[in-house]
Amino acid sequence: MFEIKILEERCKSCGLCVHFCPKKVLDISSKRNSHGYRVVYAKNPEKCTMCGICYLVCPDVVFVKEEG
Fold first, then answer.
1. Which of 1, 2, 16 lies closest to 61, judged by CA?
2. Fewer Cβ in 10 A, N or C end of the chain?
3. What is the pLDDT of residues 42-64, one digit of tens each?
4. CA distance 50 to 14
């Protein structure tokens, strides 16, 4: 099994992960990273099925698989 870690400093608020998440797990927060971008977060983590779509669609490699 694995977990998907969110690397907030890489996020540019493009919203692709939010748009393509089939379970609507992700959202853009009001929190900003050091570059001034609002970062993605797991709004509904209990709905996550570990499908990995966020990992695949992110152009900035915000999502990293970690062994869990």
1. 16
2. N
3. 999 999 998 989 999 999 999 99
4. 21
Q: How far apart are CA 2 and CA 29, in angstroms?
A: 24
pLDDT band at 3; cut points 50, 70, 90: confident
pLDDT tens-digit series, residues 8-23: 999 999 999 999 999 9
Structural domain of 36: 2-67
CB 55 within 8 A of CB 20: no
Whole-number Å distance between alpha carbons of 27 and 7? 14
| DSSP conformation letters of the chain | -EEEEE-GGG-----HHHHH-TT--EEEEEEE-TTSPEEEEESSGGG-----HHHHH-TT--EEEEE-
CATH number of the domain bearing residue 57? 3.30.70.20
